[in-house]
Amino acid sequence: DQQVKQNSPSLSVQEGRISILNCDYTNSMFDYFLWYKKYPAEGPTFLISISSIKDKNEDGRFTVFLNKSAKHLSLHIVPSQPGDSAVYFCAASAGGNKLVFGAGTILRVKS
Amino acid sequence: EPEVTQTPSHQVTQMGQEVILRCVPISNHLYFYWYRQILGQKVEFLVSFYNNEISEKSEIFDDQFSVERPDGSNFTLKIRSTKLEDSAMYFCASSEGTDEAFFGQGTRLTVV
Q1: What angle do CA A76, A79, A83 make, to 5 degrees?
Q2: What percent of chain B has pLDDT over 90?
Q3: For position A1, what pLDDT does the model report?
Q4: DSSP string of A55-66?
Q5: Nearest of A54, A102, A101, A108 to residue A85 by alpha carbon
Q6: Which residues of B touch A31 (CB under 8 A)?
Q7: Backbone dihedral angles phi then psi of residue A83, each to the nearest 5 degrees
Q8: What would the pLDDT profile of B26-81 be if each residue is shown by its tens digit?
Q9: Whether the bond into A44 is cis, omega within 30 of 0
Q10: What share of chain A is helix, strand, coil (3-state, %, to 5)?
Q11: B91 at the A interface (CB within 8 A)?
Q12: By three-state DSSP, how is residue A33 classified?
């Protein structure tokens, strides 16, 4: 089941620069998208979400962009901080509550 | 800040034994979920629960699995007869509505 894909297993960014994490989806029924952050031995922590009626949502250093025609969303973190180093999961739902997760991208922010 | 709590943090059980994983969702939330993550794999949906019944379940959630909300605060996942391949991190989550779900810290289940 590859409905949500995060094609980059890892990303390394210098502190203070922008981190861009990408996610693609195949199910056109998805109408709600979320990003979660996960540290080892902890549960996923909700970061930011976007509904399909929007193309951008911003919360502090985090911005999510949605391109419905391309079935693509991205998470921008600026400026990146060492504490942002974690695994980032993209997730999507289709009119309900069940979340379909991507495989995750490991972000390393170097100081 | 309200949080989802799960117990135990780690459970070791012998193959064929029954296990019950426990969760206390956020108190005003109405939707409850179980997900699991096998080591090195994706977080996978198992089941959602609303209004005292299962609202959706995945193919993984077969007859060996059951969920229950025995009282006003707990939400449990029971695996009737564990198999080696049930070894995973099990995450409980809850949401107020059809929006973001909040996850617990997880229970690591090891079946030996």
Answers
A1: 95
A2: 84
A3: 58
A4: SEEEETTEEEEE
A5: A108
A6: none
A7: -70, -10
A8: 998 999 999 999 998 899 999 999 989 999 999 999 999 999 998 878 999 999 99
A9: no
A10: 5, 55, 45
A11: yes
A12: strand
